[in-house]
Every structure is written in structure tokens, then in C-alpha cells.
Amino acid sequence: MTSSSEMPARALTEAVRSGAISVSEIVSEFAPLADEAATDPARFGIVTSLAEHAVDRVRSLTAESESARRASHGLPRDLLGLPVAVKDLFTIVGVECTMGSTNLAFTATETSEPVAKLLARGAVLTATTHTSEVGMTAYTEPIGYASPENPYFTAPDQLSSPPDTTPRTPGGSSGGSAVAVATGVVPAALGSDGGGSIRVPAACCGLVGLKPAHDIAGGNLSTPAFLTRTVDDAALLAGLPLSPTQHAFRRSQRPLRIGVTVSPFHAEVDVDKRWANGAWAAADRLANAGYDVVDVASPYDPAGPDVFKIFRRTITRMATKLPRADYSEIVQWIRACGQEISAAEAAATHQQRMALPGAIRSRWEVDAVITPTLAFDPPRIGHFSALAPWEDFDEQTRWTPWLSLWNLTGWASVSVPITLPGSSGASAELPATSVNIGAVRCGEAELLEIASVLEGSSAG
Q1: Which end of the chain has a smaller Cβ tally under 10 Å, C or N?
Q2: CA-wise closest residue to 433 among 410, 417, 454
Q3: pLDDT tens sequence across 189-202
Q4: Whether pLDDT at 458 is above 80
Q5: Rounded to an integer, what distance in angstroms lies between the CA atom of residue 460 and that of residue 458?
């Protein structure tokens, strides 16, 4: 019999609804996993076990009336009993929140809105997960804590002598959440994505990472998001209904038009052949499935503005809102860059950003665009942080030269693993790469429809 710790998120919630398994039985399996994982944060990405909180949660859920179980604060109890880990940027009342640094740790006096929504949907929190300091980097090396190690890309570097066995990064800034899901501590984890912080770890750890659409009018780059093992589970956590048909998602009335490119948007970098081939393989599979697939050119007008400059100004300006504290060198540098931007320059940058969606759509007559998620395999832990801050920032951009477009526009985006056809020899031993499917004229449901086709073809 399959244990609850091996079941997908959707199967767990359906088993609870059918009465095949109780919330208490689920927690009795996952609470010890959280306790054990907290003793080895490098392996499992866990900051704090919430096992005791989970047991208390079972009591409160059991005591609730049936009507309260069905709905809370207007939200369906669709996650009833589901164990979920929480990125340690989101607060939980009474629980220490590290913000990715021992210098910033504090005990929270309130529960953040994304966590409160999870609880309202019936989820059970079992652990908090490591993040980069204030979520500012695409890798996860929390200050004063062990860095989570990638459980997916584990082979030593045979080109070095002796072979380099330094663990690889799981990506960031939601790296701990990715590791917790990939190692089976939880079936799903809450993170956030302000420049790829969900999709990068998903690509590094063989997971699905959905960044939902978000409103950019207030200048925000980031939105809460989830890491899961399957597309179906991504739909569940996103609150998207399933079609009653055989396929997970209802096909559109017309074939979606999908663009594909492997040309970097925001940096000059030689894209690793394996990652580029993943995007072309995805395009072929979608064409075979009936989608209209076309090549697309750069999303940006060569005459300007410099779109990555817009992103850089936006994220560094946001960092100036952080309170004064003992930050690491990279975060200090990011804040200092933001402080050099005047209010007038920030306003002009925001106006340029608001014009981006229309400008990109005028160049891309497609519903969605596929790119590689990363330009090359996850580097070793310490690769980025050993660089000077400005070189660190630029190297992260070379590694992830596509993803921030969807943070700037606010459009939805999802990364999904992709296996290459006919892999043999050494290439067959390497983990799957990942593609990013970014919305242009569609929403999360359509993106997950596309992702489900790729997931199914990869499995076959």
C-alpha cells in the first residue's frame, strides 16, 4: 500500500474527502518527516519543524463543524489535510522567521496573508524552508545557516581533477521549498517569485513551478507561488478546476499559438545545448499535439528602452524599502544601487514598465512563449557568492536570462521538466532540463494545459 507521504497532493486531498484517510493519519506520517528533516537542513532545506503545530492543527480541524470545513473566509476547503511547507519569508504567528539570515531572525506576531489563505483552505503547515537573504538572489545560501543542497543534480564534475563533489545549488530564492518537495518532506511548498524565484528552483530540482499572474500597477515584481511535483498538483494549489474529461485541462476552441525561442533576452550567454534542445523538443511535442508552434524574435524593440535596466532599477529600488540591518554584501550592494535612483527616475522607469505588455504583444502575436528555464546546469554552491556583488548579479542574469520578463509584465509563467528524446550514453544519466512556458495572451489554466501535454509526453 502506498503511504500518504508518497502520494501526490491531489490524491491526498481526494482521499481525505472520500474518507479513505484521515487528516490525523496524514499528519502522523508527515510530522515525523518534518522533525527528522529539521536535523539535516542541508539535505532537506528545512529551517523549523512545525510538527507540534501540525498536531494542534489536526485537533482544531477535527473540532470544526462540517460547514466550517467546507468553507472558511470565502475559500473552499480544497486543501483539507494537505501538508505544506512555507518559505521562511512568510510569517507564522509564534514561529521564528529568519528571512534567510541569522542576523534578521525574529519571532512573528502575525501570520502573513498567503499563509492565512493556505490555512483557510484547510492545509496543515509542517515546516518552514530556507531562502536566500530577504529573497534577493536566484540561489539559496542563507546567512549563518547551512545551504540546502540540490537533490536532483548530484553528479560530480568529471572535468575537474579530482572530480568536484561540491553540492550544486537548488536555485533560489525558494530553494529550501524546492528541496523539501523534491526529497518528499512535503508534497507541496509555498514560495514566492519576483524574478524567477519559484521557476528557477523548480528547474533545478525536477519540479513544476507556477508563477501566477499578478498586478503590476503598484510596482510589484513578486507574487506568492507554489512548488509541486506534478502539473496536476500545481493546478490544485493554484485553485484551478479540473475538466471532467480524460484530459486534465479543457482544450481551447482553437489551437493555442505557441512561440519558441532559445535566444537570451537579458544577457549575452552561450545557452547550453542540452537546455536549448529541451525547448526545441517541447516545441516539437506541442506541434505534434496540435498546437500552432512558431519561432519568435526578441520581445523587445532594438530602439529601446533597455528592458533589463527597467528590471534592475525596479528590483534595486524595491530593496531600498528594506529596513536598515546587517545584510550580506550582495544585498547591501543591491540596496545601494537602488538608493542611487532618484524618485523621478523611478517614476519614469515605472511608466516604461507599464508600457511593456502592449509593446511586447505588438511584437509577439502568440498566446504563450516557450524558452529554456535556465541557460546551463545549476552551478556548485558558492559559485555566485564567491563573486563581487556586481559580478554575482550579472552571473545570475546569465543563468536566468528569460524569466524576469514575466515578473515585469505580471503575466503568468510555469516551468516544467522536459526529457530529451533518444538520450543515450552519458546524456541519459543527466537529469531532465526544464522549459519555461510564459503567458502572452492566455492565463494559468491554458499554461497548465500546455505543461500537462509536455509532462505526459515526457513520461511516455
Answers
A1: N
A2: 417
A3: 999 999 999 999 99
A4: no
A5: 5
> Which residue among 4, 132, 197, 415 is the active-site one?
197
How high is the mean pLDDT of the chain?
92
- pLDDT by residue (tens digit) across 424-441? 445 556 899 999 999 999
Between the CA atoms of 52, 55, 59 and 61, what dihedral angle is there, to the nearest 10 degrees? 110
Catalytic residue among 173, 174, 222, 457: 173
Indicate whether 295 pLDDT > 70: yes
Q: Is 173 a catalytic residue?
A: yes
Alpha-carbon gap, residue 22 to 41, rounded angstroms: 29
Is 211 among the catalytic positions? no
Please tell me the distance from the alpha carbon of residue 62 to that of residue 379, in angstroms, as a whole number. 46
Q: What is the pLDDT of residue 136?
A: 98
Q: Is the pTM of this model over 0.70?
A: yes
Instruction: Express each pLDDT in 2-38 by its tens digit.
Output: 678 889 999 999 999 999 999 999 999 999 999 999 9
| Cα three-residue angle 393-145-35, rounded to 5 degrees | 130
The partner residues of 195 in beta bridges, in order of sequence, read none
Is the pLDDT at 298 greater than 60? The verdict is: yes
Report d(CA 328, CA 301) in Å as an integer: 36
Q: Which residues contact 173 (CB under 8 A, 6 or more apart)?
A: 87, 89, 100, 131, 132, 135, 136, 137, 138, 140, 191, 192, 194, 197
Dihedral pair phi/psi, residue 292, rounded to 5°: -90, 105
Determine what percent of the chain is predicted with pLDDT higher than 90: 86
- Residue percentage of the chain with pLDDT more than 70: 91
Summarize the confidence of residues 279-307 as an average pLDDT.
Answer: 97
**What residue type is 366 in one-letter code?**
V
Respond yes or no: is residue 161 known to be catalytic.
Answer: no
